[in-house]
Amino acid sequence: MMRSPGAIAVQVGPFTLRWYGILMASAMAIGLWLAYKDAVRRGVDPDPLLKASELALLGGLIGARLYYVLFNLDYYSQFPSKIFAVWEGGLAIHGGVIGGVLIGGGYAWRRGLPVLRYLDIAAPSLALGQAIGRWGNFFNEEAFGTPTDLPWKLYIPPSNRPVEYAQSDFFHPTFLYESLWDLLVFILLVRVFRDRVTRAPGALFLTYLGLYSVGRFFTEGLRTDALMAGSLRVAQLVSIVGIVVAIVGVPLLVRRSREA
């Protein structure tokens, strides 16, 4: 059985340090370090890459929050001050990827830098960063699944339970499922796919997109707080798009690189 110790790591007077912030900062720092190491390994100048990565992180944070807020407008229109309370959670990964690619990729494109190669370098960092960041959901007691009695069940206090599951104590730790899947994706990208598609710029990023989307599709089906578009789960729809793009795009890019 799992139980969160709470969202606050350190509190001294008015100063509050939350686990969510610690994990997000750690994920970003480790991601940048990994990207730097991979750039050096590939013979790519790491300095402009890090500049693009920093902008991608900023764009990712903004995109992740805007994406989440847009699909919860009923709540945020009533409490607009909560829009900026990112320490309470509410960052949508799909929005983060879109925002990061638009801002970081846009910067690289305008500077004439190798955008697709940069995306490939960023892919393992994204997967590992998501594996780390998902534990913020554990400390915030959010992003959990439906009730369960499995040995690894997660206790959720009454104040954080959905109304329809108010009488249930234990829930699927979907944050853990996705974190483990993201860690596996990271390992597969680095150990299996990176060298195999190195001559096809963009293929590793699309491989990440497809693999991540497979896991997200299934974990999203268990969640009780899924972002909805009518009766459809938004993350599942986006995951299907990601899987299709990967299935079509990776072979196309590999084939094109062989013909070049």
Q: Which key features would you list for this structure?
A:
three-stranded mixed sheet, two-stranded antiparallel sheet, mainly alpha, 260 residues
Any low-confidence stretches, pLDDT <50, length ≥5?
A: none
Major sheet characteristics: 3 strands, mixed
Helicity, as a percent range? 55-70%
Oligomer designation: single chain
Going by helix content, strand content and strand pairing, the class is mainly alpha
Radius of gyration: 19 Å
Strand order of the largest sheet: 1-4-5
Number of strands: 7
Q: SSE order, as H and E? A: EEEHHHHHHEEHHEEH
Count of separate structural domains: 1
Query: Beta-sheet strand percentage?
Result: 5-15%
Mean pLDDT, all residues: 94
Number of helices: 9
Q: Per the principal axes of the C-alpha atoms, what is the gross shape?
A: globular
N-to-C terminal Cα separation, in Å? 54 Å
